[in-house]
Design goal:
This protein has 88 residues and is mainly alpha-helical. Helices cover 64% and strands 6% of the residues. It folds into 2 domains: 39 residues; 48 residues, no CATH class. It has a two-stranded antiparallel sheet with strand order 1-2.
């Protein structure tokens, strides 16, 4: 299992290292290839996404934990057939 994960990670890393500068090489015109620096976002957009993730990830985690706490517990067949407070 561990060797499998190492093999997959090594394959992905080898491809990434060998194609580092060119993300999408052009076979027609090499100067028109997409490079790492052409594909990256500006510093302003990266900062906006950082602020948005700092704001929204705690909200998403709080909502997910609240939904999990509301929905936790085992649902039995008797509860479903009885219809006591369920949507069935």
């Amino acid at each position: 299992m561990l060797a499998n994960g190492v093999a997959v990670a090594s394959t992905v890393m080898c491809v990434g290292v060998s194609m580092f500068r060119l993300i999408l090489p052009s076979s027609v015109q090499p100067r028109a290839s997409l490079t790492v620096w052409d594909a990256s976002s500006s510093h302003m957009i990266l900062f906006i996404m950082l602020v948005a993730s700092i704001i929204f990830i705690p909200i998403i985690l709080a909502y997910t934990s609240w939904v999990y706490s509301v929905m936790r517990g085992k649902v039995t067949e008797d509860e479903i057939e009885g219809g006591g407070g369920h949507a069935y």
